[in-house]
TrEMBL record:
The keyword Hydrolase applies. One of its GO terms (molecular function) is metallodipeptidase activity. The keyword Chaperone does not apply. Its EC number is 3.4.13.19. GO terms for biological process: proteolysis. It comes from Nonomuraea thailandensis. This is Membrane dipeptidase.
Length: 354
């Protein structure tokens, strides 16, 4: 029996608004030629109960000039929201998340998964903030000019420029997201920041020792300063690479034990609309993994035989199913509501304001 989440604020601290079955459905709107936002995408998002999603835009990896590419994607997302204004709204403040819930719209939070577009100009943080960017992740898996990502072998921490960027993010009240960062980068940025920081999509390294998961020291430090930790629905939650819903629950439980129930949420790192034909998807997955490896952007644990999602926790019921499993684990309705979205909203209010 599913759990009713109708009245809950459900915030996906890192997700994807996309129909991955584009070849079957056709494309109405695309961003950068890779995302499909069509009638099914929107209907599935509404049906899931999600209130707001931090969507990735701008440069993450690849042969793009980071700054102009990022500006183009910000403009594209503005057009998407304008086109689908009856379904979507941009989130700028914590109060906007409540407004999205009240009006039945899906809140879109502009976020980066790589601060490479800042280049050597921390003042660009203000430019991005003025255009609606509310979350900036410092690094992707590899190193950049700001610090080392989780797969960078040096684990060198923040660069001097990186320290300036964190200060600029604080000045503009933009979330400092430490997902994908190396351990030293994460710890140093959390200690430097004058505002709470987040790890919007991660797992717990105490359960599965992979670089994309965070140590208890990282989790505890972020939480102790009023920050937020989102658990993802990714293969890194199980050492075999074949993560299941019970693994997501295990990592949430561990994070709550380390961080406390006021600092843990979800950042699925996936779509709501599921892949319909998993066999056909398997055939494409090997090519996708190979391209990421060639670009130097893949993480340990990414393999051609592991789906980048949790097979039994996807589709329009994913948040209700997670709530049901947490209830089975003995979590109260209040704690479940916090994990589904209230904790992110409290963190957003602390950084962005109401």
């Amino acid at each position: 029996m599913s759990v009713d989440i109708t009245d809950h604020l459900v915030v996906n601290a890192l997700g994807v608004l996309d129909n991955p079955n584009v070849a079957e459905t056709g494309t109405l709107v695309q961003t950068s030629g890779s995302l499909t936002i069509d009638a099914r995408t929107l209907a599935d998002a509404h049906a899931s109960g999600v209130t707001a999603i931090n969507v990735t835009l701008g440069y993450t990896m690849g042969d793009f000039d980071p700054y102009p590419h990022t500006l183009r994607e910000i403009e594209t997302w503005g057009s998407i929201i304008a086109t689908h204004h009856e379904h979507l709204m941009r989130i700028d403040t914590a109060a906007d998340i409540a407004e999205a819930k009240r009006t039945g719209k899906i809140g879109i939070i502009y976020g980066f998964q790589n601060a490479a577009a800042v280049e050597d100009r921390p003042e660009r943080v203000a430019t991005f903030a003025r255009q609606g960017v509310r979350i900036i992740q410092l690094t992707y898996n590899q190193a950049n000019q700001i610090g080392d990502g989780s797969m960078a072998p040096g684990n060198r921490g923040l660069t001097p420029l990186g320290r300036e960027v964190v200060e600029a993010l604080n000045e503009q009240r933009v979330m400092v997201d430490l997902s994908h960062s190396g351990e030293r980068t994460c710890l140093e940025a959390a200690r430097l920041s004058r505002q709470p920081v987040s790890i919007n999509h991660t797992g717990c390294r105490a359960l599965v020792d992979l670089p994309r998961n965070k140590t208890d020291e990282e989790l505890r430090l972020v939480a102790s300063q009023g920050g937020f930790v989102g658990i993802y629905f990714m293969p890194f939650l199980n050492a075999s690479g074949h993560a299941r819903a019970r693994d997501v629950v295990d990592h949430i439980v561990h994070a709550v034990n380390v961080c406390g129930e006021d600092h843990v949420g979800i950042g699925t790192d996936g779509t709501i609309t599921p892949v319909d034909d998993l066999d056909a998807y398997r055939a494409r997955l090997a090519e996708h993994v190979a391209l990421r490896r060639q670009a130097g952007a893949s993480a340990a644990g990414e393999r051609s035989d592991t789906f980048p999602f949790v097979v039994d926790l996807r589709g329009v019921d994913q948040f209700r199913e997670l709530a049901r499993l947490l209830k089975e684990r003995g979590y109260s309705s209040t704690r479940i509501e916090k994990i589904l979205g209230r904790n992110f909203c409290a963190y957003a209010e602390a950084v962005w304001g109401g």
